[in-house]
């Protein structure tokens, strides 16, 4: 049985008012070095270069996901009754630790290591040397394995994974509200209280009462607007592209060594190397690169540190691209490095898609039958019928326009 804290611990939070902690294992995980590291990881990758107040971290988001999960399992009566005490502890731990494996600038870092953050998260949880693992095994020797199972969707009780990772989950609910607040974009908000009041469990699935459907539509539209206005902002992508180009070039260099970045030349980072690889470390590495012997690395580091972002054109004409490449060539900047083409499909960023029963938001109708959201909501029907458009974005060093 999990030990309770001597008193309820509370942490002030701009989204939830207070984060409430009553379990000693949760308190110990919060204070573990692997979780404290999340203070040093931006929640929104390069978006802080666009929205100047978007300085919030994976730490605050993870606490928020924990708090929404805590409210779900204790305030939604049918969900509370569906879980025993051990399962409640398991899902609370999974909610808190679900983003433990995020690298610097969040999702972007996965393009460098080629390791999904979920895989890194479970590696840290299952590693006997980590403090989070040691906190979990104090409760039960199998708790790390069960928590990892919730995160990677292998836990025998599927509803636990649905709470953390599904189309309507604590993770999405927190990051939408938190990211909207921190970026000052009010269209990312929705009625969390109404969603929680209308959540139910039926036939082993999380679902929403028919009377709560409109709050779910607001939630989906919040996702739609946040994706196109915040998460996919071209200037944020420009910043991340500079970092990517830097590492693509650096990792090929045999004669240039920046000690802080050397672990990245290994095929796989050790857990200890990963824990140390935070955004503070990357920034120090970029500062060191300003003094290295490679002129390209020096230039890219300067652009990253001083925010000299690439410009961009949406769906450019062929001759526009060619003129820019020719100009860069003329001024001594290699177009193969100083231009980037990105192709995207609009369907890939739809805020809601129903590909199977596991990616469906279920509505509990007045006859106690489950129906897919798309069969109940005209708004969602319209979203799913949107044509799939292809968009090209061409990034380039702004010197080409001078």
UniProtKB/TrEMBL annotation:
One of its GO terms (molecular function) is dGTPase activity. It comes from the Bacteria. Residues 65-176 form the HD domain. Coiled coil: none annotated. This is HD domain-containing protein. It holds the Pfam family HD_assoc_2. GO terms for biological process: dGTP catabolic process. SMART domains: HDc.
């Amino acid at each position: 049985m999990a030990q309770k804290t001597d008193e309820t611990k509370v942490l002030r939070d701009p989204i939830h008012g207070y984060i409430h902690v009553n379990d000693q294992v949760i308190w110990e995980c919060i204070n573990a070095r692997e979780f404290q590291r999340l203070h040093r990881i931006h929640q929104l990758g390069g978006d802080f270069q666009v929205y100047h107040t978007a300085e919030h971290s994976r730490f605050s988001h993870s606490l928020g996901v924990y708090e929404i999960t805590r409210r779900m399992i204790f305030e939604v009566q049918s969900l509370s009754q569906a879980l025993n005490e051990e399962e409640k502890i398991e899902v609370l731990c999974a909610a808190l630790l679900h983003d433990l494996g995020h690298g610097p600038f969040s999702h972007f870092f996965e393009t460098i290591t080629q390791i999904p953050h979920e895989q890194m998260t479970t590696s840290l949880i299952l590693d006997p040397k980590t403090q989070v693992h040691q906190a979990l095994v104090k409760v039960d020797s199998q708790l790390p394995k069960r928590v990892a199972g919730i995160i990677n969707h292998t836990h025998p009780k599927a509803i636990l994974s649905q709470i953390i990772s599904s189309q309507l989950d604590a993770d999405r609910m927190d990051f939408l509200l938190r990211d909207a607040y921190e970026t000052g974009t009010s269209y990312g908000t929705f009625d969390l209280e109404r969603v929680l009041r209308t959540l139910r469990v039926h036939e082993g699935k999380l679902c929403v009462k028919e009377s709560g459907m409109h709050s779910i539509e607001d939630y989906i539209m919040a996702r739609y607007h946040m994706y196109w206005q915040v998460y996919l902002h071209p200037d944020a992508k420009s910043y991340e592209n500079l970092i990517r180009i830097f590492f693509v070039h650096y990792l090929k260099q045999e004669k240039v060594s920046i000690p802080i970045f050397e672990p990245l030349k290994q095929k796989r980072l050790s857990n200890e190397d990963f824990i140390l690889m935070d955004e503070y470390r990357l920034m120090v590495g970029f500062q060191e690169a300003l003094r290295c012997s490679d002129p390209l690395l020096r230039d890219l580091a300067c652009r990253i540190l001083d925010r000299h972002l690439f410009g961009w054109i949406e769906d450019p004409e062929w001759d526009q691209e060619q003129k820019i490449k020719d100009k860069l060539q003329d001024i001594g900047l290699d177009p193969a490095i100083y231009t980037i083409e990105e192709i995207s499909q609009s369907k890939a960023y739809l805020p809601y898609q129903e590909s199977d029963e596991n990616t469906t938001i279920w509505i509990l109708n007045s006859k106690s039958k489950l129906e897919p959201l798309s069969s109940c909501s005209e708004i969602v029907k319209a979203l799913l019928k949107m044509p799939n458009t292809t968009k090209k974005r061409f990034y380039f060093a702004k010197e080409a326009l001078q």
